[in-house]
UniProtKB/TrEMBL annotation:
The entry's keywords: ATP-binding, Cytoplasm, Cytoskeleton, Microtubule, Motor protein, Nucleotide-binding
InterPro entries: Kinesin-like_fam, Kinesin_motor_CS, Kinesin_motor_dom, Kinesin_motor_dom_sf, P-loop_NTPase
Highest rank taxon of the organism: Eukaryota
Similarity-based family: Belongs to the TRAFAC class myosin-kinesin ATPase superfamily. Kinesin family.
Family annotation (PANTHER family): CENTROMERE PROTEIN E (PTHR47968), KINESIN MOTOR DOMAIN-CONTAINING PROTEIN (PTHR47968:SF67)
Organism lineage: Eukaryota, Metazoa, Chordata, Craniata, Vertebrata
Occurrences of domain Kinesin motor (ranges): 5-344
GO biological process: microtubule-based movement
The protein's name: Kinesin-like protein
Annotated localization: Cytoplasm, Cytoskeleton
Length: 477
């Protein structure tokens, strides 16, 4: 079991040519790297207020604008992929406002090969490792789920290209008696190598784009969860290890300021996206000590990610930040959220289970080995049933034993469990029959007594009647 807090990283997106830089500084000094953001005093209201100017946030590491995709993969994703290969569950999720680089970080940019993001690099790494390890048999599947407006859609559904997202069967959540979450209508597609897995990713991303219309702005408001499922087994062993790696591109985290333009955006803020609001509630509940109820069930996304948040998982969060002046307040919101996430502790356990078919094969072999050993020791080959001849012999022995009045007499059938069991069954039948005989005898005795009583009663009645008749006759005279 590995118990550790969720690892939280920050990545700052490169500034656009015409963007005005906000003021921030990165300090990656161990052991506590920090990001400091400075906000100019808000003079919009015409007076100097007391609002804080500088905000400092701690992260596992901060990746500034020039950080490349390969470094992001090596430092953030590779350790998680390694845990998943070892049989633990893992999750990496990107959180930040629309345009801050979540999709670029998780999936990558399409223009250059070097812009490949965490998903393709992780697939490549995992298949590479699997190929190198010939000590186990691995099976790999992928699934790609999109959650939009509390509805789940299977991005790998082959019917996608032909129909609108709304017409596809909805992915729904089912909970079993052990409170494990199962997703109905979400397909698990087998991928035997990197190329097949990449094709599935590409298919999902294409479906994601087709579904995106200017009307629903799905990309900024939907969550996408790409999951790699790995199961492994050593040849001949009945133990299977199963693990899942969720790579999550969350919806844009932008908030609507209640105070509006001119007021300070950092005061009270509200989410556009309801399920991110529920995610925040779950995170607040998890960060609080002594909270027994965690509201996972409030939204589909928190239900799906239940294990990744406060459960059996190694979880990592990447806060994506746009540091231009206009977005600095959203970036501060993102950092604040990240600080709460960093308090959550997860306990990742090895997911091992026994394959029942293999277990049967193993047990059969064990039985055969033991039988062989027994035959060697006793010098006799035993079948599971006793022969007719052996049964007759046993009946005779038991009969003799029962009839023998010597209290010291014993019944010796040898060290053979089948014969010993047979004797016990025989004794049981014998005793049951005896009990029955006794109770039958008892019943007939009772019957005789009852009849005797009845006879006595009749006699009494007759004698009374007789004496009355005498009396009556006397009166008539
Ligand atoms: P989000 O998914 O958070 O809405 P995107 O990943 O789509 O944001 O990023 C918005 C734009 O910025 C995209 O055109 C993307 O290619 C670009 N971009 C984001 N992060 C980086 C980066 N680190 N380096 C280069 N371009 C980036
Ligand atoms: Mg995006």
């Amino acid at each position: 079991m590995v118990k550790e807090t969720i690892r939280v990283y920050a990545r700052v997106k490169p500034l656009g040519r015409r963007q005005q830089a906000g003021s921030y500084s990165v300090d990656n000094e161990e052991p506590l790297p920090s990001l400091e953001i400075t906000v100019p005093r808000d003079l919009a209201d015409g007076f100097i207020n007391n609002k804080r100017e500088s905000y400092k946030f701690k992260f596992q590491k901060i990746f500034d604008q020039e950080a490349k995709q390969d470094v992001i993969f090596d430092i953030i994703a590779k350790p998680v992929a390694e845990c998943v290969l070892a049989g633990y569950n893992g999750t990496i999720f990107a959180y930040g406002q629309t345009g801050s680089g979540k999709t670029f970080t998780i999936t990558g940019g399409a223009e250059r090969y070097s812009d490949r993001g965490i998903i393709p690099r992780t697939l490549s790494y995992i298949f590479d490792q699997l190929q190198k390890d010939s000590s186990k048999v691995y099976t790999t599947h992928v699934s790609y789920l999109e959650i939009y407006n509390e509805c789940g859609y299977d991005l790998l559904d082959p019917r996608h290209e032909a129909s609108r997202m709304e017409d596809l069967p909805k992915v729904t959540i089912m909970e079993d008696s052990d409170q494990n979450i199962h997703l109905k209508n979400l397909s698990l597609q087998q991928a035997t190598n990197e190329e097949e897995a990449l094709n599935l990713l590409f298919l999902g991303d294409t479906n994601r784009m087709i579904a995106e219309t200017p009307m629903n702005q799905a990309s900024s408001r939907s969550h996408c969860i790409f999951t790699i499922h790995i199961s492994s087994k050593e040849p001949g062993s009945a133990t299977i290890r199963r693990s899942k790696l969720h790579l999550v591109d969350l919806a844009g985290s932008e908030r609507v300021a209640k105070t509006g333009i001119g007021g300070h955006l950092l005061t009270e803020a509200k989410y556009i996206n309801l399920s991110l609001h529920y995610l925040e509630q779950v995170i607040i509940a998890l960060a609080e000590k002594n909270r027994s109820h965690i509201p996972y069930r409030n939204s589909m996304m928190t239900s799906v990610l239940r294990d990744s948040l406060g459960g059996n998982c190694m979880t990592t969060m990447i806060s994506t930040l746009a540091m231009d002046k206009r977005n600095i307040d959203e970036s501060i919101s993102t950092c604040r959220f990240a600080q709460r996430v960093a308090l959550i502790k997860n306990e990742a356990v090895l997911n091992e289970e026994i394959d029942p078919r293999l277990m049967i094969v193993q047990l059969r072999k064990e039985i055969q080995d033991l039988k062989d050993e027994l035959a060697l020791v006793t010098g006799k080959q035993r079948t599971s049933e006793l022969s007719q001849e052996e049964l007759l012999q046993l009946d005779e022995l038991i009969d003799m034993f029962l009839k023998d009045n010597d209290p010291d007499s014993s019944l010796d059938v040898g060290a053979d469990m089948r014969k010993i069991k047979y004797c016990f069954v025989h004794m049981k039948v014998f005793f049951l029959n005896r009990d029955e005989n006794i109770s039958e005898e008892k019943d007939s005795n009772e019957e005789v007594e009852k009849l005797k009583g009845l006879l006595q009663q009749r006699d009494n009645e007759i004698s009374i009647l007789c004496s009355e008749e005498v009396l009556f006759g006397f009166e008539m005279i």
